[in-house]
Amino acid sequence: EEHVVTLNNDVQIPEIGFGVFQTKQGGTTVEAVKTALDCGYRHIDTAMIYGNEHDVADGIRNSGLDRSDVFVTTKLWNDDIRAGKTKEAFERSLKTMEFDYVDMYLIHWPADGWQQAWDEMQELYSEGRVKAIGVCNFEMDQLEELLKHSSIKPVVNQIESSPQFPNQELVDYTHEQGIAVEAWSPLGGLNTKLLSNQKLIDIGMKYGKSSSQVIVRWHMQRGVIPLPKSTSASHIAQNIDVFDFELTPEEMHEVSNLCINKRVGVSGHDFDF
Ligand code: A2P
Predict the structure, then answer these.
(1) Is the separation of the CB atoms in 181 and 154 below 8 Å?
(2) Which residues bind substrate per the record (predicted)?
(3) N or C: which end of the chain has fewer CB within 10 A?
(4) 239 CB under 6 A from ligand 1?
(5) Is residue 198 part of a domain?
(6) 3-state helix/strand/coil string of 160-174
(7) Can you tell me the distance from the alpha carbon of 118 to that of 250, in angstroms, rounded to the nearest whole number?
(8) Nearest CA to ligand 1 atom 27
(9) pLDDT in tens, the chain (273 residues)
(10) What domain count does the chain have?
(11) Quick check: is 86 in a domain?
C-alpha cells in the first residue's frame, strides 16, 4: 500500500517526510537519511540554508534506491529572494546535490521580492526543471496575494504546526485553497517537552504506540503532512511506524486540546533573517 497524498498538480507526495533542519552536516545527516530510507521513508525535506543538501543526496545515493524512488524537497533562501537570484539559487542547489531535478522547490520565507521569485519558480516549473513548486511560512494575506497574481498555484504551504501550536486557522485556509499543508516541528521541535505529555502517552498506550507516533498520526488524520526529524535510529523507525492504528475522533480532539498557542519559531509576518 502506498501512503501518498495527491497534490493539486497531480504529483504524488509521501504523506510523511523526513526533516533534516539542524541535523549536523557530514556523516550524521548522511547516516540519518540512509536510516530513514531503510525504514521506509520516501520523502526527504531539506533546504539550502540547512547546509546539508549534499549530505542528503549522499544518503539517498548510499541507500541503493533509485533517485526516482525518493521525493526530494529543497528551498530557496531569503538572500537569494532579495537578490532576485531564484534561478541561480535553484541551479546551485541541484549542483550541490548532484541531481538533475528536485521533486519540489519551495520559497523558504516570504522575504521581500518573493513575488518575483514566484514568477521565476513558475518558469522553472514550466520548463520542467522541477516537478512541483510551493511556499513555506506564508500567512493568509500573503497566500491570498500570491494566488491573486500567479497563474500556477503553489502545491504546498509548509508551516509550523504541532499539538501545542496547531495553526489550525491557517491549515484550514490553506486547505480551502486546494493547497496541501506540511508541518515543520510537527513534534514540537528540538528539546520538545510535548513528547512527555501524559495525555499523549496514555493515548499511545492503548495502541502500543509512543507519544510521538500519536502526534504523527494526529497530523495525518487532520490531512497534514508531518516532517518529523530525528538522528536516533529507533526514533526514525518509530515515526513512520504509524500505519497500523487509528485515533478515534475523541482522541483527535484530545490531542488538539493540547493547544497552548505557543510557537517554537516565528510567523511569516515576524521573521527577520
Ligand atoms: P532525537 O534526534 O534525539 O530523536 P520535531 O520533528 O518536531 O522538530 O522534533 C524533533 C525532536 O524530537 C528532536 O529533538 C528529536 O530528537 C525528537 N524526537 C523525534 N522523534 C522522537 C521519538 N520518536 N521519540 C522521542 N523523541 C523524538
Answers:
(1) no
(2) 108
(3) N
(4) yes
(5) no
(6) ECECCECCHHHHHHH
(7) 41
(8) 235
(9) 579 999 999 999 999 999 998 777 778 999 999 999 999 999 999 999 999 999 999 999 999 999 999 999 999 999 999 999 999 999 999 999 999 999 999 999 999 999 999 999 999 999 999 999 999 999 999 999 999 999 999 999 999 999 999 999 999 999 999 999 999 999 999 878 999 999 999 999 999 999 999 999 999 999 999 999 999 999 999 999 999 999 999 999 999 999 999 999 999 999 999
(10) 1
(11) yes
- Give the distance (Å) from ligand 1 centre to CA of residue 195: 8
Among 179, 166, 165, residue whose Cα is nearest residue 264 = 165
Identify the residue whose C-alpha is closest to ligand 1 atom 14. 190
User: Which residues lie across from 13 on neighbouring strands?
Assistant: 5
Instruction: Please check whether residue 226 lies inside any domain of the structure.
Output: yes
What is the total residue count of the chain? 273
Q: What is the DSSP letter of 266?
A: -
State how beta strands 102-107 and 12-14 pair: unpaired
Ligand 1 pocket check for 212: Cβ under 6 Å: yes
CA distance 44 to 21: 11
For ligand 1, say whether the CB of 188 is within 6 Å of any of its atoms: yes
**What residue owns the CA closest to ligand 1's atom 19?**
230
Q: Which pTM value belongs to this model?
A: 0.97
The CATH code of the domain that includes 64 is: 3.20.20.100
Q: Residue 89 belongs to what domain range? A: 4-191+222-231
Give CA–CA dist 197/72, Å, rounded.
32
Question: Ligand 1 mean position to 72 CA, how many Å?
Answer: 21
DSSP 8-state code for residue 245: -
Active site annotation includes 50: yes
CB 46 within 8 A of CB 53: yes
Q: Is residue 273 part of a domain?
A: no
Rounded to 5 degrees, what angle do the CA atoms 21, 26, 31 make?
A: 80
Q: Which residues pair with 75 in a beta bridge?
A: 106
